[in-house]
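Hi F.,

I've been meaning to write this up properly since the lab meeting, where we talked about keeping a consistent format for the predictions we share between groups. The idea is simple: the sequence comes first, exactly as it goes in, then the structure tokens exactly as they come out, then a line or two of notes. No screenshots and no reformatting. I'm using this chain as the first example so we have something concrete to point to.
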Amino acid sequence: MRADMIAGLREWDAILAAREAAGTTPIETVRHEDWSVDVVAAPLGVIAFVFEGRPNVFADAAGVLATGNAAVLRIGGDALGTAEAIRDSALVPALTAAGLPAGAVSLLPVRDRSAGWALFADPRLALAVARGSGPAVAQLSAVARSAGVPVSAHGTGGAWLVADEEADTDRFAGAVRWSLDRKVCNTLNVAVIPRSRAAELVPVLLAAADEAAATRTGVARLHVAEGSESYLPAGELTREIPVERADGTHTEPRATVLPLDELGTEWEWEGTPELSVVVVDSVEEGIELIGRYSPRFVVSFISENDDAHARFRAAVDAPFVGDGFTRWVDGQYALSQPELGLSNWENGRLLARAGILTGAEITTRRIFAHHERADQHR
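Output, unedited:
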């Protein structure tokens, strides 16, 4: 992880950060007969980050400096000591060597969650970035909005995978296997399988999930949507398995029936991969379920039909759509830029910004005019 953090920061050398910094080369120039207009990127100001206990985000957030911004960070209490070590041994010396103020990127030395609320309620902020998932992010976002601060909220995670009647078995198996190697926001959460292929693909799903689980402990935990349980192999609903939870190992059923209206539940697993599966009559039904129950975030479509892919991309309401494993959704992995956060479409689409937030994108626009004649008028 430390090596990835270093690599992410060094990637800024390959990014045209200077073009995005305040007051430099125009993004666009519009020339008229006797005057011109330059559109130039400008910094937003002070960016606040509240994020889970993942110290790599601390290093990624330093990327806002490349576009002329400053940052105030509040990390989860379990990682505060690590973040303080990064600040003292790497960040502050680097800022000093660059001739920047030591407070250009600041860390709140407070474990209490109220510090995050107080930070997001400060109207001097230019942008509040909330990472994580669940009610905490929604509450923090509401605090910022009530203070008049724009918000980039991570929101609910969990990726969906949809197979169609022409899905390649090996591609489907690989997508499942490599979407379950660890639990983060882009981990596979719900698999949608066509009824015409269910007898074949449900066992493939189980085998691939178990292969992922075998690298940790035991076998995978499954939730099958009500009405789809008949496609499970015999005995899976009564079989018991060891499941690693945050508080230790528990004995639980290998598979349980899940009410359809709970299909959007994000499984926060520890050592035992956990996911849901639903069998549908058509891809269109799967897309309808995504629109109704998913966080409208990451979706993968497995099909050998190019026309089906085009129809799926046009119809599904999600910012990240692929045709293989779901874990590709990451700024550093996909865009070679340290990622500050991902945004789903659970609460609406974003205006003029991709779902991956990077330091290069935290800018506004200024417009400068140059008039060649003293008597120019409209």
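Notes:
The two ends are 58 Å apart (CA to CA).
The longest helix spans residues 80-97.

If this format works for you, I'll send the rest the same way.

G.
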